[in-house]
């Protein structure tokens, strides 16, 4: 897959809740700087992190609004809409930066306000 195909697949799988397949988009030695989780290294670390995602969110959507791709780099402005298992809404605008090599994500960083994720961070009720 080229960079645009990887990015499109990233959002397709995330919005379908197919987290194991989503993790396969990342290189085994991937690096990620995640606004809430901090620095993450390795696909298996990411996979462990994502195991709790379905228990956290009753619904989750990350919808791209603007995608820019240049060679093996991409930036995506998107909007997250979610609902926790306790019924709390999460709405946030996000910017993701990606580096892709050989059809896999080798680096990713995301940037967003952390306030909308308060119910997720606190475990809500």
TrEMBL record:
<dbReference type="InterPro" id="IPR037401">
    <property type="entry name" value="SnoaL-like"/>
</dbReference>
<dbReference type="GO" id="GO:0016853">
    <property type="term" value="F:isomerase activity"/>
</dbReference>
<protein>
    <submittedName>
        <fullName>Ketosteroid isomerase-related protein</fullName>
    </submittedName>
</protein>
<dbReference type="Pfam" id="PF12680">
    <property type="entry name" value="SnoaL_2"/>
</dbReference>
<feature type="domain" description="SnoaL-like">
    <location>
        <begin position="8"/>
        <end position="107"/>
    </location>
</feature>
<keyword id="KW-0413">Isomerase</keyword>
<dbReference type="InterPro" id="IPR032710">
    <property type="entry name" value="NTF2-like_dom_sf"/>
</dbReference>
